[in-house]
Amino acid sequence: MSEKFDPSAFLSKIIGQPVIVKLSSGLEFHGDLQSIDGFMNVVLEDTKEYNKGKLTKTYADAFIRGNNVMYISQA
Amino acid sequence: MSEKFDPSAFLSKIIGQPVIVKLSSGLEFHGDLQSIDGFMNVVLEDTKEYNKGKLTKTYADAFIRGNNVMYISQA
Amino acid sequence: MSEKFDPSAFLSKIIGQPVIVKLSSGLEFHGDLQSIDGFMNVVLEDTKEYNKGKLTKTYADAFIRGNNVMYISQA
Amino acid sequence: MSEKFDPSAFLSKIIGQPVIVKLSSGLEFHGDLQSIDGFMNVVLEDTKEYNKGKLTKTYADAFIRGNNVMYISQA
Amino acid sequence: MSEKFDPSAFLSKIIGQPVIVKLSSGLEFHGDLQSIDGFMNVVLEDTKEYNKGKLTKTYADAFIRGNNVMYISQA
Amino acid sequence: MSEKFDPSAFLSKIIGQPVIVKLSSGLEFHGDLQSIDGFMNVVLEDTKEYNKGKLTKTYADAFIRGNNVMYISQA
Amino acid sequence: MSEKFDPSAFLSKIIGQPVIVKLSSGLEFHGDLQSIDGFMNVVLEDTKEYNKGKLTKTYADAFIRGNNVMYISQA
């Protein structure tokens, strides 16, 4: 990824792709990035929740509130 | 859910549906999503409160303050 | 409560009614909802304070600062 | 107190009266409410500081920063 | 102090006087209140730092960031 | 670096360079600083995640949310 | 320092001088104050990181995010 993106451009580039969303609490959500807004609120599709590496829940879709997000990375 | 929604559109789409609201403290509220506003304040109907998976309380209606919300998912 | 309220309309509907106000710290206040403002600051009348289910204090009136509020439910 | 006050009106009504100011940290300050502003910053006169019910300090006047305040009640 | 001050007037009244600044972390700073601004940022002169009542450090001048301040009282 | 930069000028000067991003939680991310915005949101390329000095994860690219950032230093 | 400075004037007065920056987490950074902005974001040169009094790291330059800063004092 040599092209220069500003952070929000990076996020819109990975819409629809599988991502990992880690929260400040340590919880991790794996799913397809359905949408994201300026407050870092995230909607994931086919979401799996992991706690300390263990699968704890699955959801069709999950709305994750931005202010808990620590980082988002491509899965 | 292949259509593209932005996060708040996602939320209004699930008004009236059974949802799970998880707070940063770990508490979970199960109920019908009655309404939600721009601050993520949520009103649930026929609400059940779970603490570490155990049912701890039931309410007719509960107003949950947005800044405690970690995520909202369809039940 | 089938009518659709937005969260703040819900709150004004329960003014004067007995409510439970739970704080992020876990403290609970039971009393009559005297008034509430846009910051979720709450004034309760005939207030009882509970800590882990035990009655710890009673007040004539108590002003509770909004940013500590986790949820408000009808008693 | 049957008259309807909004929260800030309640606070101005109790200026000059003995109050208890409880902070999110659990510390309690007992004193006469000298003044309060829109950020919930409080000045108390003849202030006593309690920690878990034990008197730990006394001050002539103390300025308490609003964002630590959990609740204010009439003593 | 029977005259009525609003909180910020109280603070400007004690400029130059010895004060105690307690932080939310429990640390205490004793020194002469050199200046304070609207964010509660404080500059103290001849500052002594106390941790649980024990003198831990002294500084010529210290700039203390407002959002950590719990209370300020006259020494 | 004797020239005078204001903090944001410093950050843009190190775009493209290897940096260490430490979060308030203690997690460290090592990678090339791809971009940064006014909220301190950071995108790193070829990212390595360290927890207490141990390599815990690697990502192609990671978006790190600004409000968790404690400091950024040149690697 | 008898002259009266407001806090931000104090900070600009000590630009270029050796300072100690203490974070709310307890970490301390010693270095030359290269620059500071209105959000209390700080750039230090020749930076040493101390944890509980022990030297843990050194950096050429470090950008420290303002909202973690507890106090800044002249070294």
From TrEMBL, chains A, B, C, D, E, F, G:
A GO cellular component annotation in the UniProt record: U5 snRNP
SUPFAM superfamilies, A to Z: Sm-like ribonucleoproteins (SSF50182)
Keywords, alphabetical: Cytoplasm, mRNA processing, mRNA splicing, Nucleus, Ribonucleoprotein, RNA-binding, rRNA processing, Spliceosome, tRNA processing
Annotated CDD domains: LSm6
Domain Sm per the UniProt entry, residue ranges: 6-75
Family annotation (PANTHER family): SMALL NUCLEAR RIBONUCLEOPROTEIN F SNRNP-F (PTHR11021), U6 SNRNA-ASSOCIATED SM-LIKE PROTEIN LSM6 (PTHR11021:SF1)
Chief subcellular location: cytoplasm
Organism: Kuraishia capsulata CBS 1993
Gene3D superfamilies: 2.30.30.100
Subcellular location as annotated: Cytoplasm; Nucleus
Record protein name field: Sm domain-containing protein
MF annotations from Gene Ontology: poly(U) RNA binding; U2 snRNA binding
UniProt family annotation: Belongs to the snRNP Sm proteins family. SmF/LSm6 subfamily.
GO term, biological process aspect, one: mRNA splicing, via spliceosome
